[in-house]
Amino acid sequence: MAAAAGAFSLREVLSAFQAAVTERREVLLGPYLRGWRGLVRFLNSLGAIFSFISKDAVAKIQIMESYCGGERREEYRTLQSMVAYELASGLVDIQRRSEHPDSGCRTVLRLHRALRWLQLFLEGLRTAQEDSKTSTICTDSYNASLAAYHPWVVRKAATVAFCALPSRNAFLEIMNVGTPEEAVVMLGDALPHISSVYGITEELYAQHKLLNLP
Ligand code: 1PZ
Q1: Does residue 213 sit within a domain?
Q2: Residue 46 CA: which ligand 1 atom is closest?
Q3: Does 191 fall in a domain?
Q4: Containing domain of residue 68, as a range?
C-alpha cells in the first residue's frame, strides 16, 4: 500500500538500494545516493538529537551528488567507474588527507561503513524479541561496526543520542510500512539488497586496497 501524502515509507528508501545493483554487479551511484537521502529524511524525523549525525551524512551525500552532476558525471555513474577514474587520475589521498581531502573514494567509504551499521541494526531490529530496546540494538550494532572508526567524543555523543530512540514496536511503526509484523517482513525482503550493495563495495575497495583511506 502506498504511504499517505507527506508521509514516506522506509520500504521505498530501502528499495533504492535494490535498484542500485545492476546485473553486472555494478553499484549505480544515483540510486545509492537516493537511498541515503531517504535514510537521512527518516533520521531527521526521529528528532533534533540526531541532527549532528544527519549533518555529516548530508555533507557526504552532497559531495557525491556534486560529482555525479558535474563535468565528469560519466565517470561517476557507478562505484566501479568512480574508483577506476579517481585512481587512474591520482585523485585519491592514500596516506594522508591532503590534496584531495574529499575524493569520492574516501567519501563513499564513510557511507559504506555506516551501511554496515544499518545492516546490523535493521537485522537486529527484525530478529529481536518484541520487548527489546531499540537503543540496545542500536548501540550493539554501532559498537560492532562504525564505533571503531570514531573518536571517543563522537562515540559518546552517539551513545547518548541512541537513548532517545523509541521502543522497538514504535520504531517499526514509524517506518510507515504497516503493522510491526509487516515491517518485519519488509525488512526480511529488503536486507539482502543492502547486504549485496555492502558486499560488492567491500570487495571492490579490498581489491584496490582502499579500505583504510584517510
Ligand atoms: C536510528 C539511529 C541513528 C543512528 C546512526 C548511527 C551512526 C552514528 C554515527 C555518528 C557519527 C556522526 C558524526 C560524524 C562523524 C564523522 O567524523 C565520520 C567520519 O567522517 P570524516 O570525519 O572522516 O569525514 N562520519 C561517518 O562515520 C559517517 C556517518 C554517517 C551516519 C549515517 C547514519 C544514517 C542513519 C540512518 C537511520 C535509519
Answers
A1: no
A2: 1
A3: yes
A4: 10-207
**CA 143 – CA 159 distance, rounded (Å):** 9
Distance, CA of 151 to chain centre: 19
The residue whose CA is least distant from atom 13 of ligand 1 is 53
Distance, CA of 101 to CA of 93 (rounded, Å): 7
Q: Which residues line ligand 1 (CB under 6 A)?
A: 39, 42-43, 46, 50, 52-53, 56-57, 110, 113-114, 117-118, 138, 142, 146, 154, 158, 165
Instruction: For residue 122, give the H/E element and its range.
Output: helix 104-127
Q: Tell if the pTM clears 0.90, that is, is over it.
A: yes
Q: What is the CATH number of the domain that holds 16?
A: 1.10.3520.10
**Residue 4 counted as domain residue:** no
Q: What is the mean pLDDT of the chain?
A: 95
Total domain count for the chain? 1
For residue 1, tell me if it sits in a domain.
Answer: no
66-103 pLDDT per residue, tens = 999 999 999 999 999 999 999 999 999 999 999 999 99
